[in-house]
Amino acid sequence: MKQHNTPMGRVFDVFNYIFLGIIGLAMVLPFMYVIAGSLATEAELAARPFFILPETITFAAYEYIFSTTTFLRSIGVSILVTVGGTITSLALTLTMGYALSKTRIIGHTVMIYLVIFTIIFQGGMVPTYLLIRDLGLLDSLWALILPIAMNPMWLIIVISFFRTLPVELEESAKLDGATDMGVFLKIALPLSKPIIATFTLFYAVQYWGDYFNALLYITDNAKYPVMLLLQNIMTMADVRFGEVDQLVEQPDQSLTLAVIVVATIPIMFVYPFLQKYFAKGMLLGSVKG
Amino acid sequence: MAKNTTQALETNKISFWDKMKRDRWLYFLVLPGLIWFIVFKYVPMWGTLIAFQNYSPFLGFWGSEWVGFDHFERLFQNPDFFRVLRNTLILAFYETIFVFPAPIILALMLNEIRMTGYKRTIQTLVYMPNFLSWVIIASLTFVFFTTNGGVVNMIIEYFTGSTVNFLGDPNWFRTMIIGQQIWKDAGFGTIIFLAALTSVSKEQYEAAIVDGAGRFRRMWHVTLPAIRHVIIILLILRMGNFLDQGFQQIYLMTNALNRQVAEVFDVYIYFTGITQGAFSHSTAVGLFKGVVGIVLILGTRYIAKRLNQETLF
Lengths: 289, 313
Hints:
The complex is a heterodimer of chains A (289) and B (313).
Chain A (H helix, E strand, L loop, with lengths): L6 H32 L3 H6 L12 H6 L3 H32 L7 H13 L4 H10 L17 H12 L3 H9 L4 H9 L4 H17 L2 H6 L8 H12 L15 H34 L3
Helix pairs in contact in A: 1-13, 4-7, 4-10, 5-7, 7-13, 8-9, 10-13, 12-13
Chain B lengths: L1 H9 L5 H7 L1 H24 L5 E2 L5 H4 L1 E2 L3 H7 L2 H21 L1 H11 L4 H12 L6 H12 L5 H10 L9 H28 L4 H9 L4 H12 L1 H13 L6 H7 L5 H4 L2 H11 L3 H28 L7
Antiparallel strand pairs in B: 1-2
Helix pairs in contact in B: 6-11, 7-11, 8-11, 14-18, 17-18
Keywords (chain A): Cell membrane, Membrane, Transmembrane, Transmembrane helix, Transport
InterPro entries (chain A): MetI-like, MetI-like_sf
Membrane topology (chain A): Multi-pass membrane protein
């Protein structure tokens, strides 16, 4: 498109490029500092306000946290919940999403409305807590998975995605004698890679980052996921008040930074690989649907 | 069998049982998800009825005594309730005027970038914080804003000689919350608007240029109307969650110093319900919140319809 630029338009362009550049930097610089700080010495952290290259690099903070059972165990819990939860979520979302994409099933409209209604109205924190307690799931890792196993909004996106698949494929497979189950497994799923990639990322991020359910349902320290551990470390350090709790030794700054880095790394690691999928996946479902 | 199935797809005049039999695999597929929704979404909704009981953990739902609207009456006489309501409404209002438009503005600005490489780099960077959990974001906030050697305060101290207590001062609480939300979600929110913008035809821009419209007039008269329906749908959805400040975020930022302004419904429900065991009382608060949410969403939808806008449902 020809730009037809006025002097005002050019001023705007310059401002726009610079402003967006600053916004972009504001998203990465905090991380670069945290990574740099986790590799720096305590003395340097206290002396220099901001840096992205430490003067002396030391892995002491990482060596320390990886030598503690508390930290290793919490990472283990988080990995277990993330993998188990993502598989559970995908299985539930894809099967229900596929079935509800077929308008011919009885009660189809009612079921869709049941799903949409849960976006608008929820039972709330206390009744959900009582349910989990009555199911005997307190202090069980299932309590970190089941209450958030499906996201109604994402289910709606999955349903509208499955509707975009060509009907002819299903019809011809049926002529060849395939059942609905066969069509789902052999035709619909292989065609759904972008949407599967998208929601693998979304669900994995959800489980990895969740501390709310752990805060509510987990009291046993041995079952703390890494986010709850990190929250405890931050509260202990009590940086918020600027006063140190006399009973607990304040953790070194670089240790806190190292825990933040390790808790963020899995996201940083999968994000670039899945990024090309999720924008597409989101759009396939939301805009066209 | 296969032939029958395809024929059945074409004719509607088949009996209920034949339909059930024909689609049995689909029912099999829908069942686990349906059970999940009933157990984890609808049972808690049923559970909100304890707001009308004096729920006792020992007697359970069926054994507890029904007290009607007692908890609600007590709620409306409780000054704490109005403080929490006020905090919630102020924050919700700020979120609507500051957080909601942020991705729209960002999308419009990104849309004006012609260098594809630059645009893509910025997009990759601004989407990223969305994937970080609130614990990480709160931790970053603590690291950067603490008076105890935080980067921001070290810089402020260098220039002014004093520090600002961003994390403890109640006057800074809402600014910090809004800032965190924009940092985390504004970038990701642009996806949907940028997608809507790809549907604008080039002819419309060319026509506008012929008519002598400058950059801003084009943005105002062509680009913005193109994403209007998306804005309205998102605004309606937003209204349903008007009173939902994310518990995860606010709880992390709440401390003894700012609790007077920080306590919103979800945080209050957590403290009274889960930690103090006032199950019925806090469920009544939750129900109040839920009902207000429904009224708001239906109200917005009604207004949008009156204005002849597309709505979601």
